[in-house]
Design a protein that fits this description.
The complex is a heterodimer of chains A (248) and B (161). Chain A has 248 residues and is α+β, with helices and mostly antiparallel strands. Chain A contains 5 helices and 13 strands. Chain B has a 4-stranded antiparallel β-sheet with strand order 3-10-8-5, with no helix packed on it. A 4-stranded antiparallel β-sheet of chain B has the order 7-6-4-9, with no helix packed on it. Strand 7 of chain A pairs parallel with strand 7 of chain B, so a sheet runs across the interface.
């Protein structure tokens, strides 16, 4: 798996860029097939809602940009394909049993934050999105210092006893794993993606808290539904949540 | 990426078409989606519309009494974002953000002119930030949602005229 670049995907490797997500948005009009953009250095790496993504040499910063024939809701489900792909790619370099998925797209290593995934799509009200970008930041070599208020300690693959792997090599592994996820989606449907994800889900059947923009909902993590929404059993009944940060 | 969508994606596709049908006040829509040489999905959606009763057609003898209820209903319909032709509606379930990130200015404000393709707001679902672009050039007449508000399929978001 490690040595083969998936067919049908392009790859661009840059020495330095502001952010691979911004670069993807700039290049999207020019691409004619799904394209991975990797940067050896990001000067303005970003996470969700403007959070800074600390960039350190030796870690992976890459974005996959493509034009899926997908409605906005289908595009959002790529979160789980991305998480599954990252889980599988990481499992080649660290003990698989130490990895877990946190809804919707975090992959934890020894309960620490080893990576971040950010998805951005854009549309003009048509049935399908214009494009989708999936950004991956993976702490292969270095864990950034913990930011105040973050409940999951940053960790790195190397720091947790995993193998040393160069970003370019990891990119190939990840790109292959992601292509496999797209093939599974195509052939077997989202039900299969969901099953794979649930198999690796952290705290299934246990109490977790989902913080939405307006409230914090605590309950038993029951499942994710067929659209990928988080399902919690709370004191007042079953709650289905489309957007939130999960804590435990 | 050309891919053969799954059953799930077919269902979502049909749902999106149904939404288009409703938004554009169409009665019928037929689309064929080609997956390969021998494989396609043919969708035809139609909608029953009620025949609008013509008040003018009422018998002449009762003309004075008859139309009393009609004018009262008309302004209410015009103000209803659901039926306003300039309303941009949500195509997904998620959370609305009016700025690119906390502390930044809002993408748009009421009275502002926008070009086609300008970002109006973001809807987040499953950590996917979906930028909603203006489908046409115009003026922002109303913003119908608040920051961090949860929205459903079809929730009116913004009116562009």
């Amino acid at each position: 798996m490690t040595g083969y670049w998936p067919k049908g995907y392009d790859r661009i490797i840059l020495d330095e860029v502001d952010s691979t997500m911004s670069e993807a948005a700039r290049r999207v009009a020019l691409i004619d097939r799904p394209t991975w953009i990797m940067a050896r250095r990001q000067t303005e790496g970003r996470g969700r809602r403007g959070r800074v993504w600390a960039d350190t040499p030796g870690n992976l910063s890459a974005t996959l940009v493509f034009r899926p024939a997908a409605t906005p809701a289908e595009a959002a489900r790529r979160s789980f394909l991305a998480a599954n792909a990252l889980f599988e790619a990481l499992s080649l370099y660290v003990d698989r049993s130490k990895l877990a998925c946190k809804w919707p797209n975090d992959v934890l290593l020894n309960e620490g934050k080893v990576a971040g995934i950010l998805l951005e799509s854009a549309g003009r009200g048509g049935a399908f999105v214009d494009y989708l970008s999936i950004g991956f930041g993976v702490n292969l070599r270095h864990a950034p210092p913990p930011a105040p208020g973050t409940p999951f300690t940053p960790v790195s693959v190397l720091g947790e006893g995993g193998e040393a792997v160069a970003p370019e090599v990891f990119l190939t592994t990840l790109a292959g794993a992601y292509a496999t996820q797209e093939a599974k989606l195509e052939l077997l449907g989202f039900a299969r993606i969901r099953e794979d994800w649930l198999r690796h889900a952290a705290r299934l059947g246990e109490e977790i808290t989902a913080r939405t923009g307006t409230e914090a909902v605590s309950g038993i993590f029951d499942t994710i539904d067929e659209e990928g929404n988080l399902v919690l059993i709370t004191g007042t009944g079953r709650r289905t949540i489309a957007a939130a940060d999960v804590y435990f | 990426m050309t891919e053969k969508p799954s059953h799930d994606s077919d269902v979502s596709f049909i749902r999106a078409l149904a939404e288009l049908l409703r938004e554009n006040e169409l009665t019928e829509l037929e689309v064929m989606r080609e997956y390969g040489d021998d494989d396609s999905l043919n969708v035809r959606i139609s909608r029953q519309t009620q025949i609008v009763q013509q008040v003018a057609a009422a018998p002449v003898a009762h003309q004075v009494a008859m139309p009393a209820a009609a004018p009262a209903a008309a302004p209410a319909a015009a103000a209803d974002p659901e039926s306003h032709p300039g309303t941009v509606k949500s195509q997904m379930v998620g959370t609305v953000y009016l700025q690119a990130e906390p502390g930044k200015p809002a993408f748009v404000s009421v009275g502002q002119t926008v070009a086609e393709g300008d970002t109006l707001l973001i809807i987040e679902a499953m950590k996917t930030m979906n930028q909603i672009a203006s489908p046409r050039a115009g003026t922002v007449k109303r913003i119908l949602v608040g920051d961090s508000q949860p929205v459903e399929y079809g929730t009116p978001l913004v009116i562009i005229e």
